[in-house]
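Lab manual, section 2.4: Encoding a predicted structure.

Procedure: take the sequence of the chain (199 residues), apply the prediction step described in section 2.3, and record the output as structure tokens. A sample record is shown.
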Amino acid sequence: MPNPIETDFKLALALGRLAGRWGQAEIGVEMIYTTLSEMPYRKAIISFSFHKSVATQRDIISHLADETTWIAEELRAEIKSSLKEFVDKSAKRNGWIHFPFGVSTADGTDEIYKMTRARKGDVLYSKTPASHKLITEFADEVSELTSRLYRAHGLLTLSYENKLAAQRHDHSPQGLSSRLHDIQALLAVPAPRFQSSKD
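Recorded output:
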């Protein structure tokens, strides 16, 4: 039986959409790191490229957020929460992208399945139902996550600009408090969707 990715156009399209959207989410994580690190952009990108594990990326960004005094506590919590969601979704994304597909004809009908690898037990692989609709639904979740990451980065950039402005013009606690209040108000506004498309 041929690989369903080669014969099912909608399945291949959904996988391509998921791969592209995940790449956008990864860029969102990278942008958050570059701003929090306060390093020159090129050096920050080089530094971040050595952190391949998403768990490591989350940990280092969380520690940087804890050490950053110029962001509001609400933004710090949002950065950490969005990074946790990124890590939580990465395993499911890896399952769709890396594990093989197959077609079952046991009951007389062709049903696409996805191989799932188990960490424990005697059975190394098991079969789970798969379809372009399931993949597209997950790709839409990744799109929502990307919106969240980009929004967090936008607010982080605004906080950094506020910090620079405070250093140049206004060192008073009242001025800084006012700018932090602005960030908190922006966090309360629902994030717009980054991208979505349905079959």
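Check your result against the sample. DSSP finds seven helices and three strands in the chain.
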